[in-house]
Amino acid sequence: MMLALPCNKYGHFLPPNTPPTPLNDNITWEPFDDRATFEFVEWVVEDSPQSHANLKKLLRILAAKFTTDGMPDYCPFYRSKQQILDAIDAIECGEALWRTVAVRYRGPLGPHSPPILHIRNSLEVVKTLVGNPEFVNHFDYVPFKEYTAPDCRQVSNMMSGQWSFDKADEISIDPSTQGGMLVPIVLGADKTTVSVATGHQEFYPTYMSIGNIHNSMRRSHRESVIPVAFLPIPHTSREFEDDEDFRVFKKQVYHSSLTALLMPLRPGMTKPHVLRCPDLHFRRAIFQAGPFIADYLEQVYVSGVVYMWCGQCLSIPKDDFLEGDRRTHELTAMIRELCTPKDAWVIFGINPDVEPFTTHFPRADIHELLTPDILHQLVKGVFKDHLVEWVLDYIKIVHGERVGNKIIDDIDRRISAVAPFPGLRRFPQGRKFKQWTGDDSKALMKVFLPAIAGHVPVDVVQCVKTFLDFCYIARRPSHDSNSIHAMEELLVRFHDLRTVFKDAGVRDDFELPRQHALVHFPRMIRQFGSPNGVCSTITESKHIPAVKKPWRESNRRNPLEQILLKLVRKSKLASARVNYGRHGMINGDVLSDALRNLDLEDAASDDSDVEDVLDPEQLEDALFRELAAQAAAGDVPQAEVTLSAWPAYKKRAHVVAQILQQPRLVEMLRRFLYAQLNLDNPDAENHANVDLLQCPFLHARTLLSVYHSATAVFYAPSDVANPGGMTREMIRSTPRWWKGHARYDTVLVNLGGDAVHAETIDGMMVARVHAFVSVPYDGNTYECAIVRWYVREEQIDLATGMWIVHPELENGHPVYDVIPVASIVRACHLISVYGRTRVPDTFHFSDSLDAFNRYYLNMYVDYHLHELLY
Fold first, then answer.
1. What pTM, to 2 d.p., does this model score?
2. Rounded distance, CA 53 to CA 561, Å?
3. Cβ–Cβ under 8 Å, residues 792 and 746
4. Contact assessment for residue 415 and residue 431, using Cβ atoms and an 8 Å cutoff
5. Domain ranges (residues) in the chain
6. Which of 137, 636, 800, 853 sees the fewest Cβ atoms within 10 Å?
7. C-alpha to C-alpha distance for 163 and 167, rounded to whole angstroms
């Protein structure tokens, strides 16, 4: 069995409970003077890159300040940027240098540029990944099976999937590997263009990670995904661009480059290689070629199949294009032996001229290593390129070109009229983009369904809704048998519903590889865990720090050489920070740390002193980090809502009542205080009906603090990952947002207790926040929110599958209430139920929550709300 048993640095297993080998405690800040110097270098290189001239000016300003303060001989950090770069180059850890390999070919290709491959030593990169102490609580040493109930297996990170379990069993057949640790090598390749205008500014980066690291670390942009290669991009004259020999040459160069990249790891795929792990123990690692992150075009390239065919199965790309028998290297070799190259191409979709790089490594088969891709297969593929276009074509076919375009214009106005929401990208002109990004497509998914409801039949709306549910469930951080079964049912329903487009003449067939990829999702989730840890979103996001940002900082002359040098220095800085952190040299804020070291602040024994140094924003960050650490330890915290650092204004209660147009404000606050002072009294829940004489007295001249925003922190691992799966969002309640229109956000409020009745949604109600108020009473401060209630309708909308709510009215007037800030769960999003109403051209999105009578509770605005409301 592969039990990942600790050993010494020579590979000899240790007795149980043996502590890890201690680190060298003689570490210093060398080549830096101290922590402040190191963090200044990080700021200059990483956070705020400066030109040589600007940095020289900054350093001279600092020198002038020191001279004025009587320290003329003190050198402020460094005297030039070159000194800073020399200091980074002197860092001894994290050095995974690049080497350049030239590819030679003498075939009949005509004039072409010689391909150049830039690669790192993959073994050194794996050592860096495995030995990073930041992953100590986010690292799996052995494959495992996890069950939430009998016959209900749960998969999340890669080591919980069946593939890792099977590979560990296969490897452990060799007695020399027993007791070792499986290290799956995750690769991802994706071509990117940095500048179209300047021409030939495209790069082909390849990234590496390991399957032991949790998905949340790969999604949160930590140093868990490292650029390891820039693949060659062969060019030739236009005469030979479409030549078959040249296309074959490009694919052969591609696979040869990947083979060369992994060759340093090949000996460790059969014989254990001793590595230090995040917990500081040494273990005997066995490397295994693992999942390959790629979009469809990249999958065709890497698997050696013909375009329009599937790289995982032998399904024929015709009509429904359903799942076929599994492809394997052995099956491909047999087909090549028994069939002519033409038959292999036409009948089985095999490119006879391509030998996948995985054939050079033990236990590796590229056909089982292709991962499900949420970004390109689901979001940009099936949703944006297929369903959205099909819906628009459907409208034009049914209503004609002229009327159809009017309806499409109204859909665009509906999309632009959507109320704002934290993190929601707006569409001022609807869908009229010249170039769509992945973020644009994700944002359209959040608002598209209500926009088309009423303009297309229920079957079309339900088809889109079914796919959205499939997409959102696939994005969850963990899956069990129930969620995977739900995806399978949604897929069957989607296949049934999409025939509406075929019946209307929008499509003749569904010969679409990216839709065919959906049938592999359930099986691949069982194999590799949640798709959000092996999605091309991760490699796409790495393009910015690894390629685009260094390119912008280069002088555009031989930019790749400059990019590679910047990546080496980035790795050195990251490794230095990890090394300093491992030895406890980076704790807390740099200023408070310096004060402690100079004994100017007795913060080491009294945390309140640290709070005196930190401003309110830093205290908010400290709370977020505390909750994140609590979540990372497995104890999921309750949602926390805190008011903004500073009040918008402080005024007497009667003045605040006039500003907020709430003449009963003092009365509502008195009833609120009664409820807060009688939390153990069940009658306090109905404080609105309590006799006012029983409520605490609050003078009309009491000074109230009014806030225009609050911050909600809650556990939402399905969304963009922060440490521990925590998410932070702003809830705004301001009469002038960005000095313009008013913005009053809507929230979900937890009524507490067993408050589940006809007007609630699982014990929660929707409210719109009109002000956040801090009320002083009897030496304490009570934080509350003035809200307007919304009531849900009896049934979920059959077409969209969303709850519909409407403002609660009493005698024709809105119902307002005062609630504790702590009862707010998080923000929610409402979209108008347009029906067949046309949105005027002059309609402004800030009026959306006031102009309509009914609203969808938008469950697609983020993944956490979908999981909460689905």
1. 0.90
2. 22
3. no
4. yes
5. 25-93+576-612, 98-299+534-556, 374-517, 638-869
6. 853
7. 6
